[in-house]
Amino acid sequence: MNPLLTKLNIETVNAGACFGHDGWIEDSTAELLDSINPSTGETIAQVQLCSTATYDRVIDETAESFKTWRSVPAPKRGALIRDLGNALRENLEPLGELVSLEMGKIRAEGIGEVQEMIDICDFAVGLSRQLCGSTMHSERPGHRMYEQWHPLGPVGIISAFNFPVAVWSWNAALAAVCGDTMVWKPSPLTPLTAVATQHICNRVTADHGVSGLFSLTIGDNETVGGRILDDERLPLISFTGSSKVGRMVASRVAGRFGKTLLELGGNNAIIVEPDANLDLAIRGIVFGAVGTAGQRCTSTRRLLVHESCIDEVIERLKKAYAQVSIGDPLASSTLMGPLITPESVEKMTGVIEQAISEGGSLVCGGDTIEGQGNFVQPTIIRMPVQTDQVIEETFAPILYVIPYQNIGHAIQIQNSVPQGLSSSIFTTNLLTAERFLSATGSDCGIANVNIGTSGAEIGGAFGGEKETGGGRESGSDSWKVYMRRQTNTINWSEDLPLAQGIQFG
Question: Which helix (H) or strand (E) holds 7?
Answer without folding.
Answer: helix 3-7
